[in-house]
Specification:
Elements lengths: L21 H11 L3 H25 L11 H12 L6 E8 L8 H15 L4 E6 L44 E8 L3 H23 L4 E5 L1 H35 L2 H26 L6 H31 L4 H27 L8 H31 L22 E2 L2 E2 H11 L1 H16 L7 E2 L4 H4 L3 H11 L4 E8 L10 H8 L4 E8 L4 E8 L6 H17 L7 E3 L1 H35 L3 H27 L7 E2 L2 H31 L2 H28 L7 H33 L16
Parallel strand pairs: 7-12
Antiparallel strand pairs: 1-3, 1-4, 2-3, 5-6, 8-10, 8-11, 9-10
Helix pairs in contact: 1-9, 1-10, 2-7, 2-10, 4-5, 6-7, 6-8, 6-20, 7-8, 7-10, 8-9, 8-10, 8-20, 9-10, 9-17, 9-19, 11-20, 12-18, 12-21, 15-16, 17-18, 17-19, 18-19, 18-21, 19-20, 19-21, 20-21
């Protein structure tokens, strides 16, 4: 990338093709010449090997991590696991149901007993405790384990569930629930879920001749189910977005042959990236969100980066250069820009690693993987295909792009239509700048009432047993389950919880409050409530629970809580708190990168301010579409700001470089700021518009999935890209650069005093 411009210097022999990186020039010539066939073979082998590894990736794919190390819920889970190992590191619910039998039927009870016995034989299952009908005395707690290595299971006689009277409005008479402790870390619990579920279902079916069903309910199971749905959604999304992206390439480039090159490079990048994830999955967890992010970014970046190189290659060929030389020039010029853009994506992804949420770390690694793989494919496979398919690039040329038939919709009357508008904008830049800022500010206003939260995404779970089970839990008044840990080290007597327990029993939200003590150093209270753990009511109940404990428990008593609601609350809080760290790091890194690249102070200041305004406008539109106009008034996923901010900032920096680099090239040769701005618009409007359209379609494809968070993220990124590539990049940036004139390239020099 060339540093800041200087108005002096001879005019280039061919506009846009001079300069660039000598190393990339040599790489492009080698790839287009003697190394071309070798490069194609290597990428074919990489793509083919990746395709063979994909079945293993789908088998090893894990749900996104929900734990936040060091959070209050993680600390509570560790305390419970140490003091009550039989309760495991997570508590899940066995939900029994029958279309014909009541819960007190002997066959129903045999099914429960057989299921409990079969699961108790598994080393990854601890104690099991039946949940009584609301209003009935709780069952006896399981005996404490004599050592952390021993597990325990309560007597099966305690598993009987009494159906309520018809008028009580209590639990459904054909439903019964058993609380089960699950051993292992988060990854082990997720991987053991299918076998546990199969064991439970087989035992219940054999004991009741198929009359009683059972499923396992919990936050891990819910997100595991969503992970399985992600794979099907990813395939359907690609089936819809790839043809649309291909059509845009054909229309934008004017020929089927030219459009095929970015598609091949993008496909190779996608397969190679997925192959890398398949290899990584054998060593560390790879979740479904990471896979979706990698595929989406690889497709969009692969098409965009190759498109830029292709356009420069065509320009060089029209200038009379041979294919190998043209490929070298394209790699040296557009390749330099592409390299910078990939570095920008990597830089804006890295700050996610400082967030204390493992889910964010997965996204950071996925973003860097997509950037580096697509960069390697664009710089090597791109020039190789361009030179070898040079004689076929114009195959399938559209009628209006053929010689003698005009130059298509991009031009009218021999001039680019929008250039006349750009010239008018140069005469009144202040008006255009103010109007653009006003539009963006108006779009950003709804952010002021944005609501964020984390939800199970029930529409995506509709039709599954976990979706039906969660709905049943809510109807039966046991939607939430919280384990309150009350450690009392150095004192064998249990914590006095009588007043606390009695207060909970009078709370209409609470359906069960059972106290256990291990006889050594820990008292535990199991609290079941009616609040779905992913709703605002659950967050309010958690606050009330802690306030009540602080008031009614002995003074100074530590109170720790863990459960689905607590885990989701800590995850949302970790993401929101980490957002400010990411904002600070990304803004500072972007400013420094742009300042060093263009040797300017005002260009990076403008870029950072405009990118922040663009992200706010995108979230304002997201708030209107999903929260205000959506039928259910859905909350915005609390994890979205992290991912959308990093993606949009990286892509916005790409478009900033596309435009400002061309402006800087012209200004360096002639010193005329207005002419340089017009020149930059003329030569970047087409690639920016086409690249942005492809990226918007790629991310917009996420709106075709069943996951609400994917739909929201896809909409936000697509909206930000459209805003950035149109009113920001084509109106606001050139207007401000016209207003600032030579000040665009001002950079104060630090004077160092001389020693005397």
């Amino acid at each position: 990338m060339t540093a800041g411009p200087s108005p002096a210097g001879p005019r280039a022999w061919q506009d846009g093709l001079a300069g660039g990186s000598g190393l990339l020039d040599r790489l492009g010539r080698w790839a287009a010449g003697p190394g071309g066939r070798l490069i194609v073979v290597v990428w074919l082998l990489l793509a083919g090997g990746a395709a063979l590894l994909l079945p293993g990736l789908t088998q090893r794919l894990a749900p996104p991590s929900l734990e936040v190390p060091g959070s209050p819920s993680a600390a509570a889970a560790a305390v419970v696991a140490r003091g009550f190992p039989e309760l495991g590191s997570e508590q899940v619910m066995l939900a029994f149901g029958s279309p014909t039998l009541n819960a007190d039927d002997p066959r129903y009870q045999r099914a429960i007993a057989a299921t409990v016995e079969a699961l108790a034989a598994r080393p990854d299952i601890g104690a099991m405790l039946p949940l009584p009908e609301p209003g009935t005395p709780p069952p006896s707690p399981p005996p404490p384990s004599p050592s952390p290595d021993t597990g325990g299971t309560p007597p099966l006689a305690e598993t009987r569930a009494t159906p309520p009277p018809a008028e009580s409005g209590g639990r459904h008479p054909r439903h019964a629930y058993v609380l089960a402790g699950v051993h292992g870390d988060e990854l082990a619990r997720q991987r053991n879920l299918p076998a546990q579920l199969a064991t439970a279902r087989r035992a219940a079916q054999e004991a009741s001749a198929g009359a009683v069903t059972v499923t396992i309910l919990g936050v891990s199971r819910a997100f595991a189910q969503l992970a399985h749905a992600d794979l099907a959604d990813l395939r359907s999304m690609e089936a819809m977005t790839v043809p649309v992206a291909a059509l845009l390439l054909v229309l934008g480039l004017g020929a089927v042959g030219a459009a095929a090159v970015p598609l091949v490079v993008g496909g190779a990048a996608i397969l190679t990236g997925m192959g890398a994830l398949a290899v990584a999955a054998t060593l560390a967890p790879v979740d479904s969100t990471m896979l979706t992010y990698t595929v989406t970014m690889s497709l969009g970046l692969g098409l965009d980066y190759t498109l830029l190189i292709l356009l420069r290659y065509r320009q060089a060929r029209r200038a009379g250069l041979a294919p190998a030389v043209a490929a070298g020039r394209a790699a040296a010029t557009a390749g330099s820009t592409v390299t910078w853009c990939a570095a920008a994506i990597a830089v804006t992804s890295c700050p996610l690693l400082v967030v204390g949420v493992p889910w964010a770390h997965s996204l950071a690694l996925a973003g860097m993987l997509a950037a580096f793989v697509t960069l390697a494919a664009a710089l090597t496979l791109g020039p190789a295909l361009l030179s070898q398919l040079d004689h076929r690039l114009e195959w399938g040329t559209l009628p209006w792009h053929r010689p003698g038939r005009g130059t298509g919709p991009w031009r009218g009357g021999g001039r680019v239509r929008w250039v006349r508008g750009a010239e008018r904008m140069m005469r009144r830049p202040g008006r255009y700048a103010l109007a653009t800022v006003a539009v963006l500010a108006l779009a950003a206003l709804p952010v002021l009432h944005l609501r964020m939260g984390l939800h199970y995404d029930r529409p995506a779970l509709a039709g599954t047993d976990i979706g039906a089970g969660l709905a049943g839990l809510e109807r039966d008044g046991v939607a939430g389950l919280t384990t309150v840990a009350l450690p009392h080290p150095g004192r064998a007597t249990p914590v006095d919880t009588f007043a606390f327990q009695q207060a909970l029993k009078t709370d209409p939200r609470v359906t069960m409050a059972t106290v256990l003590d291990n006889g050594r150093d820990l008292t535990v209270m199991l609290v079941a409530d009616r609040c779905p753990p992913d709703g605002a009511a659950a967050a309010g109940f958690q606050r009330d629970l802690r306030a009540l404990a602080a008031r009614l428990l002995p003074a100074g008593q530590p109170v720790l809580a863990v459960g689905p609601a607590a885990r989701l609350g800590d995850l949302a809080a970790g993401a929101v708190n980490g957002l400010w760290q990411v904002l600070a790091v990304v803004l500072l890194a972007s400013f420094v990168l742009l300042m060093v690249t263009f040797r300017s102070l005002l260009i990076p200041v403008k870029a950072v301010a405009m990118n922040v305004l663009c992200v706010c406008a995108a979230f304002g539109l997201l708030t209107v579409v999903f929260q205000d106009l959506g039928g259910g008034g859905a909350d915005i996923n609390a994890l979205l700001p992290l991912i959308v901010f990093t993606i949009v900032f990286g892509l916005s920096l790409d478009y900033e470089v596309f435009l400002v680099h061309r402006i800087a090239e012209h200004y360096r040769r002639g010193g005329d700021n207005t002419a340089a701005v017009l020149h930059g618009l003329r030569h970047t409007a087409r690639p920016i518009t086409l690249a942005a359209a492809i990226m918007a379609v790629t991310f917009g494809g996420l709106m075709l999935t069943r996951r609400l968070d994917f739909q929201q993220g896809g909409f936000a990124v697509a909206a930000a890209i459209v805003l950035d590539a149109t009113i920001i990049r084509m109106v606001l940036v050139p207007s401000l650069m016209r207003l600032l004139g030579r000040g665009n390239w001002w950079l104060p020099r630090l004077s160092v005093p001389r020693r005397r």
